Amino acid sequence: MSLNNQKLKQMANAIRFLSADAIEKANSGHPGMPLGMADVAAVLFGKYMNICPDAPRWFNRDRFVLSAGHGSMLLYSLFYLLGYPDITLEDLQNFRQLGSKTAGHPEYGHLSGIDMTTGPLGQGISSAVGMALAERVINAKFGDSLCNHYTYAICGDGCLMEGISEEAIALAGLWKLGKLIVFWDNNNITIDGTVDKANATDQLARFQAVGWSTISIDGHNYDEIAQAIEQAQHSDKPTLIACKTTIGFGAPNKQGPSKVHGAPLGAEELQLMRTTLGWNYAPFEIPNDVIATWRAAGQKSAALYNQWKADADDNAEFLSYINDELPDGWDDALNALKLQTIKEGTKVATRKASQMCLNNLVKYVPQMIGGSADLAASNLTFAEGMKTITAADYNGNNIMYGIREHAMGAIMNGLSLHGGVIPYGGTFFVFSDYMRPAMRLAALMKIRSIYVLTHDSIGVGEDGPTHQPIEHLASYRAMPNINTYRPCDVVETAEAWQLAVESRSTPSILALSRQSVPTLRTDAKENLTAKGGYIISAAKEKPVATLIATGTEVSLAVAAQQRLAEENIAVNVVSMPCTEIFDRQSEEYKLSVLGTAPRIAIEAAAAYGWERYVGANGTIIALNDFGASGKGDEVYRYFGITVENIIEETKKYL
After folding, report:
1. What are phi and psi of 368, to 5 degrees?
2. How confident is the model at residue 654 (pLDDT cuts 50, 70, 90)?
3. pLDDT at position 506, please?
4. Is the C-alpha dihedral spanning 429, 434, 436, 442 positive or negative?
5. Is 0.90 topped by the overall pTM?
6. 452 near 445, Cβ under 8 Å?
7. CATH no. for 332-517
8. Mean pLDDT across the chain, nearest whole number?
9. Residue 166: active-site member
10. CA distances from 115 to 300, 325, 445, 567 (A)
């Protein structure tokens, strides 16, 4: 399809006015970026993006990430103009209204064209790195005819100032992700004023230093935009295209300064903009010839899609792979591991138990790609037979992220969103704070990312309070749509891995111990972790109390139960590996587990949250302060997380 500059100008103006009209009607939004980047978007989507609105989730489509998510109306306008069937003019008119598909920032799942939820700056460009990596990995396995596409992103100064971008672009350069192309909306404006008031970074030099190609263009010159895209498409490095733009372009009295970033133009300025740009149409009115040009652009890749579909339909292995279907018998080896550990009474740290599980998972689930933030030797995320992905060979399944937890979380999101990858990533539990924003986005987007977070308590020992997680369990349990597993032995660890791998719409945390624990489970006929909590050791007589514990503390509770039994004091022991799942059980089941006797919760972490399980008359043996430096068992004794203290607290109820 031939698009001359006059047509591109009209196409860009269609984006501008749909965006400005929607923001004006909502009396809320960010017009500056959609107006400023409309020319780049018109060239990219009009001439180069391989998409198919009639098959919006086409696996081999080009991916697009609006890292500057505040400019969401740019995206919504494009979807309508290109002819995506799940967005209407009415949706644009309902921008930012409660229940609307066109939310204030793009939300994955609201519209089929949205490739990820964006808004927290820096997350989009970083997840785009994950998407581009997934494309290369799957290309290496299945070839160009089935997986061969670009990942594009638009970012602003804010994305580049956020520290996460430095971590992500360094990895993209290291991996030579030549099919990753980022457009920088270089308008020299942030909310508080001009960029130079807060930043003097030479962004082109910065990107070049970590292995990117860079191109500088006039972001309103259609020829330069097209030439830059074509040059980037032929680079063996990721490319940053610095687009010098005017924020709010076309609004004669408001373009340029920061005030146009995040406020409606106002009716008077909007009318002046119509005059300035020669747009003689009513609000939300797009002339037929412009609509026709845009709709034709939406269909330009139809032949590519049809050829791809024919090739894909002949390859059952590929279709199963990209749909993240688990092979038959994928967890047979895990189930065998459970029985073996019960028979042998295996005593290992749950981080080691996790590696034992991975040894029996990775070889049977080809989509699994793991990695660690330079802690694989401690997190034990590297399984037998794994191969590290490099720029020279993408056909691997292990990622060496380096000390980059921020980027690891976001890249994992990109891997998951791309499809064909089930990502897991490891670090110390306490350092999950670095990737919490990405974990929150994973939960919000309802995607499958698995976090292997080891050294889960004060049992870390001599490294002291900086490395001992305290509030982390409570904080993640408070986060919607994320399952936090703290298993007590090999069997529960294997059960947690099974649930995490099967969980398509909920990310999972595996909080794993440094110190060894005995095998407590005596059978594995049913995945009891799938209940969230259950009686792991029942009293032989009517219990006078119920001990509730997680992780390494379950073995302390069982030891206390045995010693109390010697004094004819009967208690039940409940293992609670996942409170989020337990909370979803029926009231009848929860009562059958917790019982009516007094309840004592034991966890080597913050006490917060356990009140709802023990009730007003219960006891919580936990922490109300940071940890201490010393041997793990000594620190446990110092804070009273001991068998003796459990016994003493139980006897208070006699």
Report:
1. -75, 125
2. confident
3. 98
4. negative
5. yes
6. no
7. 3.40.50.970
8. 98
9. no
10. 20, 20, 10, 61
**Which is it for strands 508-512 and 450-454: parallel, antiparallel or unpaired?**
parallel
Q: How would you write 257-275 as a 3-class SS string?
A: CHHHCCCCCCHHHHHHHHH
Q: How far, in Å, CA of 490 to CA of 488, rounded? A: 7
Reported as a single tens digit per residue, the pLDDT across 310-324 is 999 999 999 999 998
In terms of C-beta density within 10 A (0-12 exposed, 13-18 middle, 19 or more buried), how is residue 383 classed? buried
Residue 268 has pLDDT above 70, yes or no: yes
Q: Is there a contact between 469 and 605 (Cβ–Cβ < 8 Å)?
A: yes
Neighbouring CB atoms inside 10 A of 327's CB total 13
Instruction: Report the distance separating Cα 153 and Cα 352, nearest Å.
Output: 39
CA-closest candidate to residue 30, choices 186, 219, 248, 242: 248
The domain limits of the chain are 5-308, 332-517, 528-651
Q: Which pLDDT score, from 0 to 100, does residue 1 have?
A: 61
CATH architecture for residues 5-308 = 3-Layer(aba) Sandwich (3.40)
List helix spans (H) across 487-586: 490-502, 553-565, 579-583
Let me know: does 440 contact 118? Beta carbons within 8 Å.
no
- Mean pLDDT across the stretch 201-213? 98
Name the pairing type of β-strands 534-537 and 545-549. Answer: unpaired
pLDDT tens sequence across 440-479: 999 999 999 999 999 999 999 999 999 999 999 999 999 9
Residue 463: CA atoms inside 13 Å, Cβ hemisphere, count? Answer: 13
Within 10 Å of residue 98's Cβ, how many Cβ atoms?
A: 6
**Cα–Cα dist 57/323, whole Å:** 11
Question: Using CA atoms in the order 22, 24, 28, 29, what is the torsion angle rounded to 10 degrees?
Answer: 60
Two tokens, residue 123 = 């997350």
Measured between alpha carbons, how far is 137 from 149 in angstroms, rounded to an integer?
A: 12
pLDDT digits (tens, 9 = 90+) for 480-491: 999 999 999 999
Contact 89, 283 (CB under 8 A): no
The answer to whether 614 and 600 are in contact (CB under 8 A) is: yes
Q: Which helix (H) or strand (E) holds 41?
A: helix 32-43
Measuring CA to CA, which residue among 291, 258, 270 is closest to residue 25?
A: 270
Q: Which residue has the tokens 């139980």?
A: 650
Fold of 528-651: Rossmann fold (3.40.50)
Is residue 572 within 8 A of residue 535, CB to CB? The reply is yes
Structure token digits, residue 570: 């009967």
Which of the residues 162, 166, 224, 405 is marked catalytic?
405
Residues 276-292 have pLDDT tens digits of 999 999 999 999 999 99
Q: What is the pLDDT of residues 558-600, one digit of tens each?
A: 999 999 999 999 999 999 999 999 999 999 999 999 999 999 9
Is residue 297 exposed (0-12), middle (13-18) or buried (19+ Cβ within 10 Å)? buried
Residue 73 is which amino acid? M
pLDDT, residue 467, reads 97
Contact 136, 165 (CB under 8 A): no
488: which 2 tokens?
Answer: 């007590």
